[in-house]
Design brief:
By secondary structure, the chain is mainly alpha-helical. It has 18 helices and no strands. It starts with a helix and ends in a 13-residue tail after the last helix.
Length: about 425
């Protein structure tokens, strides 16, 4: 009997693995989905490398300080925040290719020449460069919503969130390696051609931004007041809270490593944290029912608050980050999934752009606040403050959320539990 138990257990594990992977296999056989996700992953790598490369160029290439580097990053981020919904609105009105063409040319022009600009000109040029950022994130999500049936969107957006994690694990690391080995000038040129290639591939692929059924309907402009409701604003606010928590957690993790003298292990620690998110995204995408983004973001906030109590030893900190870490990708994907269900197809591009802006605002506002807390009280307090902000935003959003769900009629077609946390 003992001899038979091992094959039996092995067979059960194989069946369990097949059951976990089978829904993803069904997703990837949908025409266009596999190529879209692959192109999205590759195209996001140079996009995720631009921030750190620009910072290092100002510090190393121009020989200036981090204050000046922060100024360039700030104006670039402000341009991105404004440009994302504008690009989405243009996609809704004029189609994908014109927007991709303009933004690809603009990005190539900035990055191929930016290394030669003096600092004042670089600051000035960073504004339109941010405004005309290649809208990879919004386009991929909008196209996923068009290609994937409603009942499979949660899995599609979960897989997309996992690929975003991989891009952020790869792009900034390549940017740092490029500046270290080649210098900022050559790295900026490499990014220029990377962005050019990303835009060109998307232009050739030209993924749909509306489903076949949506394309058959007469094209109508949708007034913002019809979809930009208090409930949707509450959703965007919780998305901002999610990136607020994530950015503060990353900074606090880096600060903890520095204070303990383990800076050399920082890359590994952040990579492990990202793996938590990948695992959480995979599991969440395969669940039979989803959860409200308010539940996921609120839980992530609650579980982040006590992380700082483990002290300054990062070997204890990493296990403490597991509960909140596994919720990262599910929380972001849930906000995208809900948005795709609440917004009509004619305004989905602009809504995805606003979602991108919300993520940017959350991260940008978190950095200085977390930095001040770290400097004044230590990383533990930054973990706690980040979690409190996440929970507070969920509580603020809750009444608007309930009214919005009630007006929609109780939730999504596939029974996803988005109605109330």
């Amino acid at each position: 009997m003992v001899g038979l138990s091992v094959p039996c257990v092995t067979m059960q594990e194989e069946v369990s693995n097949q059951m976990a992977i089978e829904p993803y296999r069904r997703l990837l056989v949908i025409p266009g989905v596999r190529s879209l996700l692959l192109v999205g992953l590759i195209a996001r790598i140079p996009v995720t490398a631009v921030g750190i490369t620009l910072t290092l160029h100002v510090v190393d290439g121009l020989g200036l300080g981090f204050v000046q580097a922060g100024l360039v990053g700030m104006v670039s981020t402000a341009g991105m925040a404004v440009g994302a919904p504008l690009a989405g609105r243009m996609v809704d009105r004029h189609g994908l290719r014109p927007v991709l063409l303009v933004t690809t040319v603009a990005q190539f022009a900035f990055w191929i020449s930016g290394w030669a600009l003096p600092f004042p000109a670089l600051v000035a040029a960073a504004v339109p460069a941010g405004l005309l950022t290649l809208p990879v994130f919004g386009v991929i999500r909008q196209s996923l919503a068009a290609l994937v049936p409603v009942e499979q969107r949660r899995m599609g957006f979960s897989l997309d969130a996992m690929l975003v994690e991989l891009a952020y694990m790869t792009g900034p690391a390549l940017g740092v390696a490029g500046v270290t080995l080649l210098g900022s000038t050559w790295t900026m040129c490499v990014i220029a051609f990377g962005l050019l290639g990303a835009g060109a591939v998307l232009l050739v692929l030209n993924p749909p931004v509306r489903s076949a059924e949506e394309s058959k309907a007469p094209a109508e402009r949708v007034a913002r007041r019809q979809w930009l409701t208090p409930g949707l604003l509450a959703l965007l606010g919780t998305a901002s809270a999610a990136t607020f928590v994530l950015t503060a957690t990353e900074l606090s993790l880096v600060a903890t490593m520095k204070h303990s003298g383990d800076t050399a292990w920082t890359g590994l620690a952040i990579g492990v944290w990202c793996v938590y998110s990948l695992i959480g995204g995979f599991v969440y995408g395969g669940l039979p029912r989803g959860l409200s983004p308010l539940v996921l973001i609120g839980a992530m906030g609650v579980l982040t608050i006590p992380v700082g109590l483990v002290g300054g030893d990062w070997r204890w900190l990493m296990p403490a980050l597991i509960p909140a870490g596994v919720l990262c990708a599910p929380a972001i994907s849930a906000t995208v999934d809900t948005l795709s269900r609440w917004v009509p197809a004619g305004a989905r591009g602009e809504a995805m752009g606003l979602h991108g802006t919300a993520l940017l605002v959350g991260g940008a506002s978190s950095a200085p606040i977390a930095g001040m807390l770290i400097d004044s009280h230590g990383p533990g307090w930054a973990f706690a403050a980040a979690g409190v902000v996440g929970v507070a935003m969920v509580l603020v959003a809750l009444p608007f959320w309930r009214r919005s769900v009630a007006s929609i009629g109780g939730g999504a077609a596939d029974g996803v539990a988005i109605a109330s946390p």
